[in-house]
Write a structure and sequence with these properties.
The two termini are 43 Å apart. The strands form three sheets. The chain has a 26-stranded mixed beta sheet that branches. A two-stranded parallel sheet has the order 1-2. A two-stranded antiparallel sheet has the order 26-27. The chain is mostly beta strands. Among the domains are: 79 residues, no CATH class; 129 residues. It contains ten helices and 30 strands.
Length: 669
């Protein structure tokens, strides 16, 4: 009977695999953008999130040996999807092809296709920890070198404001042995930063390093070096992965614990030290961490012993930017205890942090009245949840040295086999703050916000999905560009995705209503922002094409209209592939800017924004010389039709055209 069932599964999965692999010429970024609505209104951490997914795509997980923690490290999977995948593997022992993803309960076609970029089908390894010789012999090494060369000069280089050259470059090395051992090193240099001179006598402006161990007996994970953490739903600590509103609809506001290595070039949102998770008994895990690192901060003008803000953009190009580099240090330590059994989980988290200089923001500005203030901070919280069949509930409640409360709770239910509804409530007191908190929010911070989010995910058929949400948020205290209390926002979105063999369609509309000061700051105006996207994709032989139209209309007292029409083509033949795109954009101003995806080099965020009038075109060539060596060359040009100079200040370009050349070499051994 078992053999017969396996035969049926294999035959069925071959049919599904044809569709799955036929669409995998589409990049994971394009697939991700279909679901996560990258349109400029989402999370400020989009680039850091992209780094997490890039690392996963480059080092996929063996689905046949994946633990719960491994699956939870894939950020876009919901708790129900993780449970369904584990049940499937437990029932059938192993997966034989990626086509079987379509047969897993709670995993629709769209997410099965996205998941296929981050996993692979492998055989279970022999039990026991491998010997050193085995690790060195079978471990995988990867070196990636990348440079970005502009063909123009910014004023910051000609007038001497920038201390380095205009070439951006970085180097990355990774060693991995299955899902057990991972070691990495990154050196990165932004354009304009000194290299092997000034304060960067050791070469690169930024270095990152880590050693990660997973699933060794009772030790679930151990990291030494730089890392990221997430406990519960992020009200106490989350410097790992953040979610936008469309992604939250799919992940169903899940609550997870994770320790992840920090392998990206982002100079913010990471810890430095060590962290570990140990399994005490079945279902009971304890995590502890300690961190000490230097950070950039802006000193107060009236007292250099205090700081006004902590900065995280990582730029050290000018004398003033370099003076802020690592001028402050922060210590952090804490932990989490979590119990999981039969779909129920509860956890407790705590963190203590201390700065060597007092944080003293300008509280005379009314929107900063309740910002974090002082040298020592703490937060503690309880997260909880229950999954049972079609029902899922997750939540977290936290407090801190502010003695205020923050809470977030989500509830989802599968009405039918293909219709999921979700509700999410949050209340963040205006006095609450968390130095490392990051969770669902309309305003982008875990402070002074209360609201309700309702969403529907409807798989009309195996090829068609409709997602929609509405989110209302209320803010008790004045905010930046909102000089009055008791403001609100209302965000609505509906999206249709259709995928079948060689044809795909995406249609999306979003309306967001928010409040802003009028020109004289005597009253609040409603700002209505409409965003629409229509996209057609089709495959003919080795050619994949995508036609896209974006439109934006933003209105406060006057209207601002913007649109972009773009066409991209991808071609692959054996060891070489090419992607080309061209687009015309025309926007009234920056308020009606448009965003689009472009194929770029590995580990490089490429969702540029465009405003004004112009033409954007790019070409990307990739050659896989053999299984070990890969090269990418990319050229991107923006020709503006409405200006003679681009940008302003040190970033100003005296011309109407901007061309960048990216080169990348990857060597695996």
């Amino acid at each position: 009977m078992r053999k017969i069932l396996n035969c049926i599964l294999l035959i069925t999965s071959i049919n599904y695999s044809t569709t799955l692999y036929g669409q995998n010429e589409q990049s994971w970024e394009e697939c991700y953008d279909e679901i996560h609505s990258i349109d400029g209104q989402e999370d400020v951490n989009t680039e850091a999130d992209y780094d997490v997914l890039s690392e996963l795509a480059s080092h996929p997980i063996n689905i046949n040996t994946a633990t719960r923690e491994d699956l939870e490290s894939i950020p876009f999977l919901s708790s129900q999807q993780v449970e369904s995948i584990m049940e499937y593997i437990y029932k059938y022992h192993t997966m034989q092809s990626l086509g079987e993803l379509h047969m897993i309960t709670n995993l629709d076609d769209v997410y099965a296709r996205l998941l296929s970029y981050f996993i692979y089908i492998g055989n279970p390894p022999e039990k026991g920890f491998p010997h050193i010789g085995e690790i060195l012999r079978y471990g995988k090494n990867e070196i990636v070198a990348t440079t970005s060369i502009p063909t123009y000069k910014r004023d910051g280089y000609t007038n001497g404001d920038y201390q380095g050259s205009n070439i951006k470059h970085w180097l990355r090395y990774t060693f991995s042995f299955g899902n057990i051992i991972k070691f990495g090193f990154t050196g990165a240099q932004d354009a304009g930063e000194p290299f092997f001179k000034g304060k960067n006598k050791l070469g690169y402006d930024y270095y990152s390093y880590y050693l990660m161990l997973r699933n060794i007996g009772k030790l679930k994970s151990l990291v030494v070096g730089r890392y990221r953490l997430k406990f519960g739903m992020g009200l106490v600590i989350n410097n790992d992965y953040s979610f936008g509103k469309l992604a939250t609809l799919q992940t169903l506001g899940r609550s997870t614990n994770s320790i992840r290595e920090h392998s990206s070039r982002s100079e913010a949102n990471y810890m430095q030290g060590t962290a570990a998770t140990v399994s005490i008994s079945k279902g009971l895990d304890i995590t502890g961490f300690i961190s000490y690192r230097d950070i950039d901060a802006t000193p107060n003008k009236d007292s250099l012993s205090t700081i006004a803000t902590i900065t995280g953009n990582g730029y050290h190009r000018t004398v003033s930017e370099m003076a802020r580099k690592h001028n402050t240090s922060i210590f952090a330590g804490g932990g989490n205890i979590r119990y999981f059994n039969n779909g129920f989980h509860i956890g407790m988290s705590a963190i203590y942090s201390s700065l060597n200089r007092e944080l003293r923001p300008d509280t005379a500005r009314i929107y900063k009245r309740w910002s974090a203030y002082g040298k020592r901070f703490w937060n503690a919280g309880v997260d909880y949840g229950y999954i049972c069949g079609k029902f899922s509930f997750n939540g977290e409640t936290a407090t801190g040295d502010s003695h205020a409360v923050a809470t977030i709770n989500s509830l989802s239910y599968k009405l039918l086999g293909n219709l999921q509804i979700m509700a999410l409530q949050r209340f963040y007191a205006y006095r609450y703050y968390g130095m490392y908190a990051n969770s669902f929010s309309d305003a982008g911070s875990i402070q002074d916000e209360s609201g309700i989010y309702l969403g529907i995910n409807w798989n009309i058929s195996r090829h068609t999905t409709v997602m929609m949400y509405t989110d209302y948020a209320y803010f008790a205290w004045p905010k930046y560009m909102q000089s009055f209390p008791e403001t609100h926002s209302w965000d609505n979105m509906i999206q249709l995705v259709y995928n079948k063999k060689q044809f795909s369609l995406l249609a999306r509309y979003r309306l967001k209503i928010k409040q802003r000061d009028n020109a004289s700051k005597t009253a609040l105006d409603n700002v209505n922002e409409h965003r629409g996207r229509f996209q057609l994709g089709y495959v003919i032989g080795n050619i994949q094409s995508r036609s896209q139209a974006d439109i934006v209309y933003s209105q406060q007292q006057t209207g601002s209209l913007g649109y972009m029409l773009s066409q991209s083509i991808f071609y692959k033949y054996h060891w070489i592939s090419a992607a080309a795109s061209i687009g015309y954009f025309h926007t009234a101003d920056y308020q009606s800017r448009v965003y689009t995806y472009e194929r770029g080099v590995m580990y490089n965020f490429s969702f540029p924004a465009f405003s004004g009038e112009g033409i954007r075109y790019s070409i990307n060539l990739r050659t896989d010389i053999n299984k070990n060596i890969m090269m990418i060359a990319r050229v991107g040009t923006t020709d503006y039709l409405d200006r003679s100079v681009i940008s302003s200040g040190p970033q100003q370009i005296r011309g109407s055209s901007q061309t960048d050349v990216d080169l990348q070499l990857r060597y695996k051994f």
